Amino acid sequence: MDRLQLISVITTFFASTEAGLLQTTSPTSGNTTITPTLNAANAGIIGALILHSVAAIISFLASFVLVRYKLKEAKKEELKAEGAIVASPTSIKHRDVEKTADHNRRQSPSRDSTTGEIIYSCNPRLEQVGLFSSSKQPPTQLLSRCHSLCIFLAALGFILALMGILCYAWAVQPLSVAVFSSGVLALCLVSGAVFLKW
């Protein structure tokens, strides 16, 4: 879910950047003639804006609305092994769990008093609340499909944004700037392919 939240933040940022690019590439200014290359630039940037917006919406819904989990930590046995005396599992307060976790981060690993084994974690468990709480297992496959879809839409949006920027360079900028921009993009693509294969 953390990766989906990160995708939502990144794609929202790129969508706002592309919305700002549309002000530059808009053919409504009086001294700019509308050419097919300028139309291709606008189509690429608008397409990237749509794809990144959709990816941001899907990743937001998948990470915040689709599945909500509550982390339940510190069972009675764990607190007992760490030296705390607990009357019943229901008496464990969130404040006590945070104090124990903070204490454990500062101390060396504790040992179970009965077996002498080192305890390395609090054995957290996830408890599902909210939507889809009736199912026994969390919908991890649904989250995985949402993640894959968001990655695909974001990557396609990046390609369209690069196409739109390059078309803008050829439509509005001088020839030297357009050739230089094409060379820089080609260099980036070739170096990326070489480093991925290497």
UniProtKB/TrEMBL annotation:
- Composition bias (Basic and acidic residues) maps to 95-105
Keyword check for Transmembrane: yes
- Which keywords does this chain's UniProt record carry? Membrane, Transmembrane, Transmembrane helix
**Which residues span the membrane?**
43-67, 149-171, 177-196
Domain of life, per UniProt, equals: Eukaryota
Q: Where is this region: Disordered?
A: 95-116
Is Transmembrane tagged as a keyword?
yes
Q: Would you tell me the protein name for this molecule? A: Transmembrane protein
The source organism is Piloderma croceum (strain F 1598)
